[in-house]
Q: What sequence folds into this?
């Protein structure tokens, strides 16, 4: 059974389900003859409740911080409130009722008063009054402590949980919170975030689920009850990946990408749009090693304007706050069709009219992009990278066009920075002339996917060839060695931005070859960092 | 009897915690302290009544202090309001 709710914190939890056992206080009205003794009983209970709250305050202070703990201080203050206390005492004395009944009744009255107020904050205080009244009744009845009745950690389900309830929970026994009510800002949601466990709200679960197996998918906001074995296995794997990520994050965030023998390497992220910047930062990448600018063209109905492009590049540069952002110029071709470009169908699109070949042919499109890039360079640390290079003459042409663009910007008085320029090395031709190319540019970045395809003469799109598409082929690795050596001869830094960059079985090889940078998908950053930190290039 | 007005500057208004602290401040004195908002009023020793006034940011309250130590109480409460609300 799958029940959809709303996720307030992502993650995956797998375990037995347990429905939170509210200490249901059934309050009966009884007649009391010795009312003064009953008032004494109430006073004792009030002292005990205050003592409990002081303890909860200290506990919450340690677990969830002062802001969240303040609620228990407020509860103590409410227990001191004269109106509340007098109302209870008067009821006991005048109506000759038991303390439990007087407390419950007074609690209801005050809680209604708050609930009817024209103020959302005060409305919520109704729950606080109920909470302190329930606490008093529990003490008076000597009721057992509510909570989890299980020895192993569980997925906890409840209607909603009051702060005093969550703080009393044994946190090591909670894998996830699932509530029927509550909001994204409710106490339970905040607690889940603090505890870093998945939580769902708005889940209308059935009653007969105690002890059943369950999966909470905090990414999709659903809970699966009694999952099939295959689903369980699937989620076990997802969870392992997730745990591994969390572990790496905890351990490796903020740490350097340095080998055991002290070699440092830059670890950057590949992105395909402005919105990916968040995951770049979340995974602690040192910069962006490949920002594919195609999205601007693919998402548009017509050629994106200079202004549109400028805004996107500038946003990314600013969000990265001075960290390197390498933007690759337009890389489309007959396999990545964009309607308004009106490209012809080709027999061999991988070898066809694409990328820099289009840009050098249709310089109007290219210049628009370059102008936007140089303008944005003023707002951060942008480098510009050109794809599909096969010869030195192409780079020379590009540099001529850049000169024109800069002259135009100078004339118009538009500020820009002298961005680093580099090229993708993804054709065997570029590898063979890499020594000469290195004299023209500031950096190389190897596109291993295309380089493998062109070197091995294997179409990446043909599934029949998958078994011989070998990116570890000695020919590819020899080329990688050659690129690094030739780049360094003329002062280029050398990186890898293809999928191979994230292949941790090769990280050591790349380090030994002398690569200065690896650019991988954001989710792989910490895994690669882990590998780098455990590599000794002298061995 | 002493009397003064004060405009609430705290974004959340007189919410639970500062209201509780105000009650504690008032308890230091013998004088009776009454808080008025529009036509409603509350004894400042009574937390829930005080919260019940629903005083929000930007609203003006009037504070009446009367009793043996009313001078000290008025000064103390004024200082408390300025520091906390």
A:
């Amino acid at each position: 059974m799958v029940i959809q709710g709303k996720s307030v914190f992502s993650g995956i939890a797998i375990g037995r389900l347990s429905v939170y056992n509210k200490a249901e206080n059934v309050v009966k009205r009884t007649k009391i003859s010795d009312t003064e003794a009953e008032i004494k009983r109430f006073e004792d209970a009030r002292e005990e409740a205050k003592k409990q709250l002081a303890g909860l305050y200290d506990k919450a202070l340690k677990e969830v911080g002062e802001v969240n703990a303040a609620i228990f201080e407020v509860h103590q203050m409410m227990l001191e409130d004269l109106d509340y206390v007098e109302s209870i005492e008067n009821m006991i004395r005048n109506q000759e009722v038991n303390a439990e009944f007087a407390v419950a009744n007074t609690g209801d009255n005050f809680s209604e008063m708050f609930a009817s107020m024209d103020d959302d904050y005060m409305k919520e205080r109704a729950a606080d009054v109920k909470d302190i009244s329930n606490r008093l009744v529990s003490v008076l009845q000597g009721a057992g402590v509510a909570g989890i009745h299980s020895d192993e950690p569980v997925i906890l389900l409840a209607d909603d949980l009051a702060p005093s309830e969550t703080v009393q929970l044994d946190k090591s026994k909670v894998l996830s919170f699932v509530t029927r009510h509550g909001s994204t800002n409710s106490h339970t949601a905040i607690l889940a975030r603090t505890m870093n466990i998945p939580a769902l709200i708005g889940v209308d679960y059935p009653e007969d689920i105690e002890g059943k197996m369950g999966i909470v998918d905090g990414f999709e906001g659903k809970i699966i009850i009694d999952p099939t074995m295959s689903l369980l296995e699937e989620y076990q794997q997802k969870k392992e990946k997730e745990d591994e990520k969390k572990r790496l994050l905890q351990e490796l965030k903020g740490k350097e990408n340095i080998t055991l023998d002290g070699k440092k390497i830059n670890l950057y992220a590949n992105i395909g749009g402005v919105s990916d910047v968040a995951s770049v930062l979340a995974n602690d990448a040192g910069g962006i090693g490949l920002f594919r600018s195609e999205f601007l063209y693919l998402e548009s109905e017509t050629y994106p304007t200079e202004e549109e492009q400028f805004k996107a590049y500038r946003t990314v540069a600013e969000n990265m706050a001075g960290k390197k952002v390498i933007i690759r110029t337009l890389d489309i071709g007959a396999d990545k069709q964009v309607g308004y470009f009106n490209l012809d169908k080709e027999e061999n699109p991988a070898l066809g009219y694409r990328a820099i070949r289009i840009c050098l042919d249709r310089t109007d499109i290219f210049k628009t992009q370059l102008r936007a890039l140089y303008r944005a360079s003023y707002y951060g640390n942008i480098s510009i990278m050109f794809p599909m290079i096969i010869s030195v003459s192409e780079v020379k042409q590009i540099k001529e066009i850049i000169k024109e663009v800069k002259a135009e910007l100078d004339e118009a008085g538009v500020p820009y920075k002298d961005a680093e320029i580099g090229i993708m090395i993804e054709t065997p031709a570029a590898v063979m002339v890499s020594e000469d190319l290195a004299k023209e540019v500031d950096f190389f970045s190897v596109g291993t996917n295309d380089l493998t395809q062109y070197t091995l003469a294997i179409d990446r799109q043909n599934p029949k060839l998958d078994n011989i598409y070998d990116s570890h082929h000695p020919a590819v690795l020899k080329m990688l060695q050659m690129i690094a050596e030739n780049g360094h001869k003329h002062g280029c830094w050398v990186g890898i931005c293809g999928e191979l960059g994230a292949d941790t079985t090769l990280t050591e090889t790349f380090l030994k070859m002398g690569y200065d940078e690896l650019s991988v998908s954001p989710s792989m950053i910490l895994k690669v960092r882990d590998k780098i930190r455990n590599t000794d290039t002298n061995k | 009897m002493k009397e003064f007005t004060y405009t609430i500057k705290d974004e959340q208004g007189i919410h639970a915690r500062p209201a509780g602290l105000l009650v504690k401040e008032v308890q230091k004195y013998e004088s009776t302290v009454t808080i008025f908002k529009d036509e409603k009023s509350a004894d400042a020793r009574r937390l829930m009544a005080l919260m019940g006034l629903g005083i929000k940011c930007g609203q003006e309250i009037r504070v009446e202090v009367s009793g043996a130590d009313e001078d000290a109480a008025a000064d103390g409460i004024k200082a408390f309001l300025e520091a906390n609300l």
User: Anything to note?
Assistant: The helical segments of chain B are 16-26, 47-52, 70-84.
